[in-house]
Amino acid sequence: MTDFSRMGVAAIRDGVANGEFKAVEVAEALNARVANAKALNAFIVETPEKALEAAAAVDADRAAGKPLGKMAGVPIGMKDLFCTEGVQTTAASHILEGFVPTYESTVSANLWKAGAGMLGKLNLDQFAMGSSNETSYFGNVISPWRRNDGSNAALAPGGSSGGSSSAIAARLCPAATGTDTGGSIRQPAAFTGISGIKPTYGRCSRWGIVAFASSLDQAGPMARDVRDCAIMLEAMAGFDPKDSTSLDLPVPEWEAGLNSDLKGKRIGIPREYRLDGIDEDIAAMWDNGIAWLKDAGAEVVDISLPHTKYALPAYYIIAPAEASSNLARYDGVRFGLRDLPDGSGLQDMYAATRAAGFGAEVRRRIMIGTYVLSAGFYDAYYTQAQKVRALIARDFEQAWASCDLILAPTAPSAAFGLGEKTSDPLAMYLNDVFAVPASLAGLPAMSVPGGLSKDGLPLGLQIIGKALDEQSVLNAGLAIEERSGFTAEAGEWW
Ligand code: GLN
């Protein structure tokens, strides 16, 4: 019998198109895997009927000789930050519990149009705020990976797209959507040995995605290889007049353009990312990545991104500032939860609903954001952070004079244990140190597996590209994938 759990997007799409198997068979097999993986807590809601319905439609189209879409017959997971018509959408928060949108996000609609089906809504950090999935109201996701020291300690799948990364690494689905505001596609991909790309800001519509920090939020695909990411990104991207920052450009044929020959490409190695005390495993993986890209024909050059050390503090001002504004809409009137203490008025309802409905990390961000936007502190914090953001974007602009792509680690360490960083928000924020610069500059950036740490956990290599040059990013990712020999998988203990 065909093991559909080991097939990627391309293999399922091609097998369905060639009549080797039916889309319904794939949906049934993966529905069963999702149902049997409750221990991972990757899904908030399972929608087996949606997966079957989409698959049956694809099988019927094929039988009728109709053309099939780019993702025809491929069941995927949908991060529960995307509004899905008729299916609860919570952003992993209590305040949105029970919210059933009457509309579909543009990205998810694009995927259904391309023939994909939905296995369910994936768990995440609450409102996508976090790097470990521990801020979810619905409990943390567990990574399918374990250290090789026999400890069986539960590890973080990364965040905020931790349900997505865990489900893909556990082979519950071949691919899933992610969103990346400051690393939430790349860091969870790195922690779980999979690939994921955040495209240029504006490639994927933000319409119908629960907003976190609108000037940074960007959707992208997560999957087990580079080709699958290219296919899914093609299906997700495209101009959308309903998003004022959507790019009015045609969607390139990234899959057809895949080419791992990097002759003529210059790869920049940013010296500021070689932090003092960098983890040995990470440094060794980075060196391997450099060697692989040279082997693929690229020239490697040293570059400087001088404002890198200000990226993290700037991000943790800008993102909470935008979040505090975006989250003002959750007032107990329009969506989800309403907490109305006896005999209380409108203000009391707002306060009670928001106090009960937002988790601790979300409340922290709203308070930081409100503070940095307040009259007395706006210039000192928010304006300064915006200036730093411009300098970071300029660093990249200047770097492009001497290179075409940048290679760096995705995260400063392998996956950490659940609970290890929850008491120290700064330690948690530091995990995003390599991810946020590309977010602040709006650039495409991808994580691909780069090897294993000494204790047997996946590590990710990050490729950052020029605006709109996802193709070169994907191609460098492919060159690494072809050379890294990364075949490690999480053992099936759940
Ligand atoms: N970890 C980062 C944060 O907590 C990034 C989150 C994201 O990209 N959604 O803000």
List the topology elements.
Elements: H1 9-17, H2 23-35, E1 43-46, H3 48-63, E2 75-79, H4 106-113, E3 117-122, H5 162-169, E4 175-180, H6 186-192, E5 195-198, E6 218-223, H7 226-236, E7 266-270, H8 280-295, E8 299-303, H9 311-326, H10 346-357, H11 360-373, H12 378-399, E9 405-409, H13 425-430, H14 436-441, E10 445-452, E11 458-465, H15 470-484
Parallel strand pairs: 2-3, 7-8, 7-9
Antiparallel strand pairs: 1-3, 4-6, 5-6, 5-10, 9-11, 10-11
Helix pairs in contact: 2-3, 5-6, 7-15, 8-15, 9-11, 9-12
Bound molecules: glutamine (GLN).
What characteristics describe this protein?
494 residues, alpha/beta, Amidase signature (AS) enzymes, eight-stranded mixed β-sheet, three-stranded mixed β-sheet, 15 helices, 13% strand, binds glutamine
Average pLDDT level: 97
Q: Are any ligands bound, and if so which? A: glutamine
Strand content: 5-15%
CATH architecture tag of the domain at 4-260: Alpha-Beta Complex
What would you call the shape? globular
CATH topology of the domain at 4-260: Amidase signature (AS) enzymes
Biggest sheet details: 8 strands, mixed
Please count the helical segments.
Answer: 15
Q: What order do the SSEs take from the amino end to the carboxyl end, as H and E?
A: HHEHEHEHEHEEHEHEHHHHEHHEEH
Question: Based on DSSP secondary structure assignment, what is the total number of beta strands?
Answer: 11
The share of residues in helices is 25-40%
> CATH homologous superfamily name of the domain at 4-260?
Amidase signature (AS) domain
Subunit structure: Heterotrimer of A, B and C subunits.
Family: Belongs to the amidase family. GatA subfamily.
Pfam family, one: Amidase
Keywords: ATP-binding, Ligase, Nucleotide-binding, Protein biosynthesis, Transferase
